[in-house]
User: Fold this.
Amino acid sequence: MLGLPEQISVALFDLDGVLTSTAVLHRVAWKAAFDDFLRDRDGDDFVPFTEQDYLDYVDGRPREDGVRAFLSSRGINDVDDATIARIGSEKNAMFVDTLSRDGVSPYPGSVRYLQAARDAGLRVAVVTSSKNGEAVLDAAGLSTFVEVLVDGQETAARGLRGKPAPDSFLLGAELMGVEPTAAAVFEDAISGVQAGVAGHFGYVVGIDRVGGSQAEAMRTAGADVVVNDLDELIPA
Assistant:
């Protein structure tokens, strides 16, 4: 059914980059926040934050985990918790401002897949590290498709580990009342694919929105299938 094994009854979708184009907004906001920090630290000769940095260290992770992972990749390990929080807060403020000003559009192929899932009786949850999950779903007009939302606010309140740990997806399956083997994970981030594999979910779908070596990296991380858009999974 819909490109999934027969035992799958629940779909656990990441949000940014899977259902909506907000991953681009996140990446731009992260670049602005990190470049400001690096410029203040290293002067005008700083090495800017890149798209590959976003994919390798930030994409899919909880906000402060992403800050730590990126700074560590640059050998910057002397930053206190307050500075980590400040960088993340500045990034989020820029993201929320852009979302409020410009809105967000869902990927048309994702909307087609959600409609097909509803018609086929496949139940839908969204599992995202973002603390803006509800606002993004509402802005994109996708809330009516979603039975359960697990976002960064929920996982923080429960003290759960962020991706690549499987905790948030396991909570999504629990709230949907199924075992992980009956759920499929849909992810555009390597950390999210790793989380799906670590949680022993029934199927892991990678969505490659960036090209290059991303698809192969997803397969290496354990994705069962990699597509460029979700509607590729809809039977012709």
